[in-house]
Each structure stands twice: as C-alpha cells, then as structure tokens.
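Help!! Second protein's tokens look totally different from the first
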Amino acid sequence: MMPLSFARELAGLRAVPDVQARIDELADKSNEGELTDEERAKYTAYIDAFDVIAILQAKARSVPAKQPNS
C-alpha cells in the first residue's frame, strides 16, 4: 500500500510554471496544425508522461486517510 504522505504529495503534483507554459504553447500550435516534427515528439512525450502521472494520482487519491499500522 502507498504511504499516506506519499499519496498526498503525489496527488498534489503539478507541472512547474515554465513547463506548463511550454505545454500550453505546444498545445496551441498543435491545435493550429503548426507543430514541427520535433515539437510533435516533445508534445507527445509530455502527454504520455502526464497520462501516467494522472493514473498514479488517481491511485493516490484512493489511499484511505487512515491506514492500519504495519
């Protein structure tokens, strides 16, 4: 079972502002069909990473607030 302190930390994880700004920029360019091949690869990598993080965060949010003593 995931320790509660780790679950709370993981559930609150967010991209730092400069990374989020870059993702937003790539998203805008993607919506306009203006990504280069290199940008598309980077954007896809961000999306894949955030998908994994979202799954882990969902699991973290399901950790009970009270855990039995081990």
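Here's the second one for comparison:
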Amino acid sequence: MATAQKEQPKLTPMMTQYMAIKEAHPDCLLFYRMGDFYEMFHDDAVTAAAVLDITLTKRGKTDGTAIPMCGVPWHSHEAYLARLIKAGHRVAICDQTETPDQAKARAKRDGLPASKALVNRDVVRIVTPGTLTEDNLLDARASNYLACLTQTRGVFGLSWLDLSTGEFYAQTVASKDLSGTLERVSPNEILLPESLIQNPDLFEIFMPWESALTPQGNSLFDHNNAEKHLKDLYKVESIDAFGAFEPSAITSAGALIDYATRTQKGSLPHIRPIQSIAFGSVMEIDAATRRNLEITQTMNGERKGSLLQTIDRT
C-alpha cells in the first residue's frame, strides 16, 4: 500500500504577499514593514544578518524547511540601511499603505471577517548607492552623485545628479577623456546600457568602477523617451533654454531621470535646471595623474592627507 504523502502547509496570506512583492524586486533586499520592524526573509535575511551582524531567526516553513528571518527596528532602520548600501546592496523599502483599521474596514466591505484582514503593503522607495538622500547617511563634505553613461554614434554622453542637493549636469566625453572624467565626477553609482558594459574596449576603464556599475536594459536609453523625461521633469516644450546639449548627453540625462523617478516611486525631490558642461570648460586630468597628485584622496584611497583635506576649512 502506498504511503500517503504529508501535505505541505500553504503559505500564510502575509507570506504570500511578501513573496509577490519580493518577486517584483528580485535584485533588492526587501525591507518588509511589520509593526515596528522591517523584516527580511529567506535569502535576504541570511544576507542581511551577515552584513549587519544581527540575529538570524526562523518563521514558519515552506516546503518543509524553516524560513530564515531577521529584522531591524523601524525607528532606527536608517543606520542599518546605510551599512547595507555601503556593502553594495540595493534595498526596497516596503511600507504599510493603510492602517489595520482601514484593512478591517476593507475586509468587511468584501464580506470577510476582520481576522482575515491583511494590511496592504507596497514598495515606496528603492535605495541604491546613488539615490541616498538622508543627510545623516551622507558625507556633508562630498557629493553623492548618481551618474549615467551612454554612447550615441561613437560619442559618450555622461550626466550626473545629486538627489540630496538637486545638482544636475550633463556633457559629452571623448573616449580618451572618459577615465579622467569619471575620476573627476566620482559617482557612487553609474547607470549604463548592458551593451556598453560588454564592450571589451571599455573593460579597463570600468575596472575601478566595477562595484558602482548598474547595468540597465538598452530600452531605457531610447533618445526620444529620454528627451520626454526631461521635458516632463521641467514642464517645458523644449530643453533648449537650458543650453546646447548633444544627443548623447540628452539620452544620458533623460535615462538618469527615468531611473531616479522609478527608485523614488515618482516622488523626486527638487531638481535644479540641468547644466551643460561645455567641451573645454573643464581642465581634464587623466586618472593616473589625478591619483598621483592626491587631489581628493591619497594613494591609499583616504581623504586624510589629500590636498582637499589640507585646504578644507568647512
């Protein structure tokens, strides 16, 4: 006689909700709000517990295996968030979008008992190295630039934005100047098309920035869509009033705004008028010379001992 297999327990409504939200954000650690804590489950919990040095516990089971879980207090989550971002992770912040009372009222309207009420939750923000805006998580003496690099007909377009201050710049860059320009801007995150990161001619240039690179689908870098994003941002019919921009610079800047809007879930802070950095208006120093001069950091990568640290009186 065949032995009946033990039926595996189904996921709870809460865990079903969690899994659906996590599936939509597979490249992020998911901070899932439960009361006064942000909880993490499965592989996210294992990763976060190791980085944050917090206790890894268990909650329920799936397929007969205990579900790893860890959490951080909601009221002090920013400190934990900063450590995860510094470790190179992206974090999706999932908050409750209604109160328990509102959830119960909704369940009642749907003809369900209050005990079946599950508070609606949604991701309200995606935090990446280039999209931090909290003053207490940023170095007040340094910019936190999110950059975007594109290439149109052999010409590189580079734009960079500091969401915490609204500074926004764009320029074209010659191939020979790309490494030095990236060193000058010193972005914490660089968006670029997947096709560009696969270009063997750029491997050496990208090597120092490997941890900052955020490849995106090539569709993000459509020129017409990028120009529309800029027009929508500033509510203008043309961006000519902001200066003369090459097509590659417009594509770069518009794609950057699209990405920033998506990570902030449409709630962008004030962005200043975009500034065009004209060719020849900035003295470009190649990366090796910049490092040897120790302008912003020493050869060991430290600010202390650099020219900037010596003359900085702020």
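Reply: Different proteins will give different token patterns, so don't panic. The first helix runs from residue 13 to 24.
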